[in-house]
Design goal:
Blueprint: E1 11-16, H1 26-36, E2 42-45, H2 57-68, E3 71-77, H3 83-95, E4 100-104, H4 121-132, E5 137-142, H5 153-165, E6 170-173, H6 179-191, E7 198-202, H7 208-218, H8 224-232, H9 237-257, E8 262-266, H10 271-292
Helix pairs in contact: 4-5, 9-10
Bound molecules: flavin-adenine dinucleotide.
Length: about 290
């Protein structure tokens, strides 16, 4: 299995989530089987996102490595956790041979007040570095349209730089639909001294409800032509899904032309959608890799 830092540029990576509740992992492994056949450079596994179980993240990340020989990344959030909680997970990661972590703050469930021992992702990164040195390769999240809580893009970038200076090896962006916004922000991040690879997070639109929810949850800007299509065909789920696949494909091709460091597909555990996008970008991705090697 390759280490992330031996991977080609642009990298091509996927994100999946564990099942909700105490369900069996059979469905998740069927999804991974399907995704693994597309030879991604890495598959990351969310931790408690969208209400999914936290219990299986480490086991699935380990399975991705051991069963498929693909680099597995475990997401890890710290909000509401004690140092002991994080210690226990780090021990579990080590004993399962998982050495790649996407270190996150996470969000407290509505109504919960306790922050635990950590207030920001930087505190988690600093804790892992202090306790474990370079045992883990750490990644962090970043926000081309700024994090919703940040008062300005500049402030958000200052805190992002703090995470980078603690030794993060790569950044994965929040989903976005407007490449111009991403490229402008990437220039600002570089000007702020951020040197780490910035991997673009792409979430294909698969339904009108999904895009409504995304806009509310993370405030992503939706280009007029995309919103127009979704509004016009709101009740034709097949049409919205097809247009979403076409848009994500086009978005990725444009990012490849604009020198992106990597593409991270939020797969939503829908390998059929990923496969369609893959068909549209694969040969272009490989040509770009050859040119940039
Ligand atoms: C690629 C990706 C994957 C994700 N995966 C998951 C997942 O698996 N599970 C999950 O629950 N959530 C996940 N999330 C969501 C994430 O947990 C939330 O967006 C969360 O609100 C912020 O996490 P963070 O690590 O970016 O936080 P931080 O880096 O801590 O930033 C959060 C806010 O605090 C500010 N800030 C940072 N440091 C400081 C400081 N020192 N002082 C004052 N303010 C500061 C920032 O500007 C920002 O506004 C993911 C997000 C992304 C982009």
């Amino acid at each position: 299995m390759k280490d992330f830092f031996e991977l080609p540029t642009p990298s091509y990576t996927f994100e999946i989530f564990p099942p909700k509740g105490a369900k069996s992992l059979d469905g998740t492994y069927a999804t991974i089987d399907n995704l693994a056949s597309l030879s991604p450079d890495l598959i990351s596994v969310t931790y408690g996102a969208g209400g999914s179980s936290r219990d299986n993240t480490v086991e699935i990340a380990s399975g991705i490595q051991n069963k498929y020989g693909i680099c597995g990344v475990a997401h890890l959030t710290c909000v509401g956790s004690t140092r002991e909680n994080i210690w226990a997970i780090l021990r579990l990661l080590k004993s399962n041979g998982v050495s790649n972590i996407l270190a996150l703050r996470g969000d407290l469930p509505e109504g919960e007040a306790s922050l635990g021992d950590f207030h920001h992702a930087s505190e988690l990164i600093s804790f892992i570095k202090k306790e474990e040195g370079d045992t883990f390769n750490l990644f962090a999240a970043c926000y081309p349209e700024k994090h919703l809580e940040a008062s300005s893009l500049e402030e958000d970038l200052r805190y992002l730089k703090e995470k980078c200076d603690l030794g993060v090896k790569g950044l994965i962006t929040q989903l976005f639909y407007d490449n111009d916004i991403f490229c402008r922000w990437r220039d600002q991040a570089r000007a702020a001294g951020i040197k780490q690879p910035i991997i673009a997070g792409i979430m294909p639109i698969t339904s009108a409800n999904q895009i409504d929810k995304i806009v509310t949850l993370c405030g992503a800007s939706v280009p007029t032509r995309v919103q127009r299509f979704v509004d016009a065909y709101r009740h034709n789920s097949g049409a919205v899904r097809e247009a979403g696949i076409a848009y994500a494909t086009e978005q990725i091709i444009d990012l490849l032309a604009r020198g992106v460091d990597g593409i991270h597909l939020y797969t939503m555990n829908q390998p059929d959608v990923v496969r369609r996008i893959d068909e549209g970008i694969r040969s272009i991705l490989y040509s770009v890799r050859v040119k940039r090697a």
